[in-house]
Amino acid sequence: MQNPRLASRYAKSLKDLAVERDQLEAVHSDMLLLKAITRSNADVVVLLRSPVIKADKKIKILGAILDGKISAITTGFIRLLNTKGRESLLPEIAVEFEKQYNILKNITRVKLTSAAPLEAGQLNMIREKVEASAGRKVEIETAVNPDLIGGFVLETGNELFDASIQRDLKDIKKQFLKNIYVPELR
What local confidence, expressed as pLDDT, does residue 103 receive? Predict the structure, then answer.
């Protein structure tokens, strides 16, 4: 991140304006779109951070990419960033906006990694258990890692719940290496 404190301040200002104008959901979807674009296309990030490309060209290119896809508040916000010379912070602002939105809406993001793709019923059951445990709404990001062999790994903030067969096998291996039943030879 270039400047997390500055990105946080801009994101908070945008969030506050969106709440004031009752456009929070529209701006949130705009920020998700911007986040997806900057994550999937490195050229957009290079464009935003380039000191060689003039500000008016950046606005024209962004306007062509986002034409009709974002709200007036977000368009004005991007123009403000461009005027202030802070357009390079746009990817970080989008990420920070989502964090602040989740805090405002009492949403926890969790990452669920499983050995195979989960069915909708399994995902809903896990979501319900995590929501009951956390006491808040949960958004689940799923990933597949065949190395887990079976089970899943659930990451939430700074906590990790590993219910994978891979971890179980590692635990068994440690027990065999420790082997308390064989007396030590002197």
Answer: 94
pTM score, two decimals? 0.80
**Residue 56 lies in domain:** 4-103
Q: pLDDT category, 126, cuts 50, 70, 90? A: very high
Are residue 61 and residue 8 in the same domain, yes or no? Answer: yes
pLDDT higher than 70, residue 183: no
| Distant-in-sequence, close-in-space partners of 151: CB < 8 Å, separation ≥ 6 | 114, 115, 163, 164, 165, 166, 167, 168
Count of domains observed in the chain = 2
- Does one domain contain both 73 and 126? no
